[in-house]
Amino acid sequence: MSRVHKIFRKFYKIGLVLFLAIFLLFIFDEIQNLDIKRYLSEHYISEGVQETGAINLVTSVLYDYRGFDTLGEATVILTAAATLSFMAPIKKVKMLGTEFTIIIYQTIIIIIPFLVVLGMNLIFFGHISPGGGFVGGVILAMIPILVTITYGITFSENKLKANHKSLLEGIGAIGFILLGLLGIFAGSNFLASGQANFGLGNPGELISAGLIPYLNLMIGIKVGAGLATIFNSLIKEG
Amino acid sequence: MELPYVVVIILFCLGIYTIIMNKNLIKIVVGVNIVESSLILLLILISFKLGGTAPILDRKYELVVDPIPQALALTAIVIGGSFIAVMLALVIKIYKRYGTLNVDEIRKLRG
Amino acid sequence: MESAVWIILLPLLTAFFLGIFKLYSDKLFYSLVIVSMVIYLYLLILVINDSYPPKVYSIGDWGLLGINLMVDSFSAMFLLIIAILFITVIIFSLNYIKVNKHKFIILTYVMIAGIAGMVLTADLFNLYVFLEVSSMSSYALTAIKKTDKSIESSFKYLIMSTFGSFFILLATILTYYLTGTLNMAEISLEFKSVPFMIKSTIMFFFIFGYGIKIGLVPLHAWMPDSYEASPIPYNVLSSGLVMKSAIYALIRLLYVIFGVEFLTESGILNIGVFWGVLTFIIAHTLAYQQSNLNRLLGYSSIAQIGYITIGLFLGNEKGLIGGSFHILNHGIMKGTLFLVLGIFYYSLKADEIEDIQGLGYKFPVLSFTFVVAALAIVGLPPFNGFVSKWLIIEAAIEAGFFYAAFFILVGTFLSLTYYLKVIIKLYTKTEKKTLIEKPDLSLKLPTFFLGSLCILFGIVPSLPLSLINNIPKFLLNNSEYIRILLGG
Amino acid sequence: MITPGFLYLEGALFLFLAINNKIKYIISFLITTGALIITFYLTPGYSLQINFLNYTLIPFRVDDISKLTGLIFTLSGLAAVFYSINISSRSNLQLIFLFIGSSLTVVFTGDLFILYIFWELMEISSSFLIITVSDLTKKTGYYFFLMQAVGGLSLLWGVFLNHSATGSLSLNAIETGIPFFMIAVGIKLAFIGLHTWMPQTYSKVPFYVTVVLSIYTTKVGVYVMYRLLSGINILAYAGLISALFGIVMALKQNQVRKLLSYSIITQVGYMVIGISIGSAAGITGAFFHLINHILYKTVLFMVAGVVIYTTGKENLEDLGILGSKLPITSLATLVAFMAISGVPFFNGYMSKTIIKEALQEPVLIWGLNLMSFGTSLMFLKFIYYAFFQNSNINLNRKPTISMQLGLGFLTIIMILIGINPFLLENLTNIDVDINYFDIKLMLSGIQPFLWSVIVFILLKKYLVKEYRRFIYYDIYREMAKIFVKIGYKLSIYHNGKLSKYLLWATTTLIILLSLLI
Question: I need a labelling partner for D307 at 20 to 30 A (CA). Which of C128, C283, C291, D90 fits?
C-alpha cells in the first residue's frame, strides 16, 4: 500500500469521525431546546417509598420496578464468568508475581474482616442507604482478588475452590429467580414484592421493603463470586 | 447547550476514532471502554437536575434527581464491564496463538 | 398468562442449575436437560396457542410503571421457530459435541433465554439487556472450540457487534431522554410530538446497530468467519435465531415505536428494500467463491436475510406475511443443511466441498434431505422456500418495487449456481472413504424431522400461515398494539 | 384425483416398493397403460378446482388439443418406459416417471401457477436424471439445469407481470410479459440462440435418457407456446430461421445423436410456424406434426440407441451395422426416414401438408419447401451411412427384446397413421377438409424429397465428408466467466482485516446519516 493511499485513508477516517461529531453536536443541540417530560420518575419519587418501602430509590428501581433488567445483567455476568472459565487453561499456570514485604501480607490479613463487614453492610443496607448488591458484591470480590495478588493464584484457589465460586454464583442467580417466583406463589406476578404485600415494613428500618434486601443479598453473592472467577481466569491467562 | 454534553460527544467520537484508527488490539479495547464510559456519562447527565439531591429520601428534600437513568447506568456498567473482560481474555488468547497484537495480521479467516 | 414469563425463566433456571450439576453428577445433568426441554416445548405450545388476541404480562405487577412482556402473533411465530430449532439442536448436540459439552448446553440455554426475552419484552431497555445476554452467549458459543480460527472469529464478532450496540444504547438513552419512559407503547405515543429530524436520527441509529447484528452488506463481514469457526449445531441456531431475533427486534421497534406512516414519509422503506437487494446480490456472488461449506452456507444466510429484509420493509400486509414466513422457512431449511453437513463432519470430518464428493452414494437418504433443503432454499417448487418467495415477490410488485421483485428472481438463479455445484459434487463418484464414526439415530432423527418440515410447509403452507396471517394486524397499525399494551 | 399426470407421479412413489425386477415391470406396466387408458376416455370440457393460498387453481382441464397431446405423451411414455426399463436403475426410472408425470400435468393444467410449478418439476427431474445417470454428464447436467432454470424463472416473471396486470392466473388472459414467456418457451424449444443446451445434452447422456428427454422437453415447449403465444405472426419467420439454422448445423455433424437433435430444431420449426399463423388449420397441423414427429424422432433415437447398445459407438459410420444384421431396426429406420422427409403414404407427409395448406405468405411456403428439402437431405446422409456404405463392424451383443418391442410398437403406429391419415382426425374429431391423396398435393409433397436425392447424389463428396467439430462461441459461458471473475475480486477484497470491516461499518453509518441532511 503506497504512502499516499495510507495518508488518504487516515484523513478519510478522521473525516468520518468529524462528520459524526458534528452531526451529534447538531442533534444534541436540537434536543436541548425540547421540553422534556419526566412523569415516570416523578411518580417514582413521589410514590416510590410507599410502594416499595425502600428509601434508596435507585435500589427500588433496580430490584423492584425494573428487577427484570437486573436478572438480565446478572445473567450477563454469569455468562462472562462461564466464558472466561472455559477459556482459561485448565492447569494452573505460574502467575508472574513479585515478592512483597511482610507488611503487605499482614495488612491483607488484617484488612479482610473489614472488607467483609463493609461489603455486608453495603449489601444489607442497600435499600436504606447508598450501596446495594452490586457495590457490596464488588467489595466482597476484592477479598479473593487481593489474596490472589499477594499470595498467588495457587494459594487462593486452595482457599476458595473455583467450583465453590461457581456454586456460589449459581446459588445467587437461582436464589434471585426463586425469590421472584415467591411473587407468583403469593398470587401476584413474577418479582412482585410490594404488590404481593410481603411486609413492606415502615421505610428506613433494616427489615423492610419486602424482598429487596434478599434480592440484594443474592445479587451480592453472585456478583462477588462472578467477579472473583473472572479475575482469576484472567490471571491464569496471563 | 451545556458543556458536559460536548464532553460526551468528544468522548464518544474519540472512542470511535480509537477503534477504527488503531491497529493494536489493546488500544481497540480501550476505545470500546471509552465509548461505554461516554454513554454512562450521558446517562448520568440526563438524570441531572440543578440543585437536586441523590435519590435517597431519608431526609428532607426539595428536588431529587431522576433515579431511573442511574439504575440504567448501573446495568450498563455491569454489562460493559463483562464485555471488556471477555474482550481482554480473547486478546490474551489471540496474542498467545498469533504472537502479535496487530489487528491486520489476525487474518486466518478471509475470502 | 403466567406461562409467558416462564418462557424466559425456565431456560435461565435450567442453565443455572446445570451450572451447579455439572460440578457433581453427569447423570443428573443430562436428565435435567431432557426434562426441562420437554417442559419447555409444552410451555411454548401453550403460549403460541393463546397468542391471539395478544396478551400482556406485567413483571412485578407494576403495570406501566414496570416492565411488560407482550405475546402477539409475531412473537408467537418466533417462539414457534424456537420450539422447532432449539429442541432439534439440543437433541443433535447431545451426541455431536465433544469438547466443552456442558458449557455448550448451558450457554445454549442462556442464549435461548436471551432470545426469548428479546422476543417477548415490550420495554426498550429490557430489549437492550436481553440483546446483550443473547449476544454474550453467542460470542462464547462461537469461541467454544478454542481453535485459532474460532478465537479470531469470536473477537471480530465481539468487536463488530459491540460497535453496533453502542448505537443501540445511544438511541435508547436518547429515547428515554426525549420521552421520559421506556415502555414501547408510551414511547410511540410520546414520539408523535418529537421533531422529524431527531426521530429519524434515532431510527437510523437503531437500524445501524441492529444492521450489524443482522449482517446486511457491508456490515456482514464478521458473519461468515463466525460460521466457519463455530460448532455446527450453533450455526443452526445462529442462522435461525440470532440473526432473526435482531431483525425481529428491529422490525418491532420500527413498526411499533415509529409507526408505518413515519417509515413511509422518512423513506426508510425504500432504503431498506434497496439494501436488501444489494445484500443478497453481493452475498450470492461471494457464496459462489467459497470452498468451505460452512462459509458458503453463511453467505447464503446473509442472502436470505436480504430477502427477509425486502419482505419486511415493503410496508404492506403481504410483505410482512411473506417476510415472516421466510424467517420461519429459512430457519428450517438452513437448519436442515447445517445438520446434514454436521453429520458429514461428524462421520468423516468433511466440511470442504472437495471432502463431500461421493457422499451421495454413501448416505443416500441424508443426501436426499440435503438436496431437498438446497432446492427449497434456492426457491424451487414444491418446497417451502418457494411459497414464501412467491409471497415476497407478489408483495413487492404490489408495493411497486418491480426492480426488487425482478432481482429476487436473479438471486434465485445465482443461488442455484452454487447449490447445484455442491449437489453435483455430492453425487460424483469417488474412491471409497472410510467412516471415522458412524452417525447414530439421535443425529439423523432431528435432521429428517427438519427436512420433512421443508416438504410439509411447501405443500401445506396453510399450517403456519394460519398463525402468520395475524402478524400485520399489530404491526401495520400500531394503535391496536398500543391499546392492548396500555391495558385498554 | 386420478389424472394421468398424477398417476405417473404416484408411480414414481410406488417404485420405492419395487424390490425385484418383476414388481418393477408390473408397476410400470400398470401405470403406463393405465395412464394411456385414462387419457383415452377423457371427455373434453372436464375440469376440477382446488384452493391454495387464496387462489383457486385448476390443476386439471381437458380440451381437444390437450387430450390429443396427452394421448401421444402417454403412448410414447409407454414405449419409452419399456424401451429403457431394463437398462436404467430404479432411481432413474423414478425420475423418468416424475418427468413424464409432470409434463403430462403441464399439458392438462388450467392456470399459470400449476403450469409453473410442474414446469419447474420437469426441469428438476430431468436435470437430476441427467446428473445422476452417469459420471460423464455432470457438467452437462449443470449447464442444462441452469439453462432450464433461466427459462423457468422468466416464465415465473412473466406470470407475475401478467398476474399484477390482469389479476388472474388463467391461461387465456395473457396481456403483458410476452417477451418473458417467449424466452421461457424458446429455451424449451431450443430456439436458435437458446439451443446451446440441446446438442451437448442429447449426445452425452445415455441413449435411453435421450429418448425420454427428446419426447417431452421440446414438445411441452410447443404445447405451452400454443397456450400462451399462439397467433403471433412474427414468430413464424423466427421459427423458419431457426429451422434453417438447424439444417445447416445438422449437415455438419458426424455424430448420430447430434444430427438428430439438430433435426429436432428443424422439425420444431414446422410446429412454431403452424402455431404462430394462428389459424385453426395451422394449429391442428402443428399438433398432428407434433404427434408424427414424436413418433419418428423417437424411433430414430431408439435406433441410435440400439446402435450404441450393440456396438458401443455412435458415429455415423457405425450405423453401417444396420443393414442385414438388425432387420427390425433397419425396417424401422427406413419407415422413419420416409416419414420425416415427408414422402406420401407416410405419416410425416400429412401434417406437413396441412401446415403448408394453411400458409398464405409465399416466403413461408418456400421456406417450408426448403425445410423439407434440407430435412430429407440430412437424413439421406443418415441413410447413406446406414445402408450404402459397406462397413465391417459387428455387434457385440444383441438388442434386448423390450427395446425391439418399443421400437416396433411405434413403427406400426407410424405406418397406420401414414396409410390412413384420417385416423388422427377421427380420434380427436377435428376435421381439416384436406384430401391427402390427391395428385397435386402428393406431387408438391414429394418434390423436395426428389430434389434432395438428386442434390445428394451430385454433391455427395461434400456432404459425406468428415467435418471437424468447429469451435462455436457460447455467449453464456462467457457471461459465467465474468460472473466468477467479479466474485473472485469481491472475495479478495474480504481479506480478513478487522480494521477494514470497521471502516466499512463506519462508512455505512455516515452514509445513512448523510441521507438525513
Answer: D90
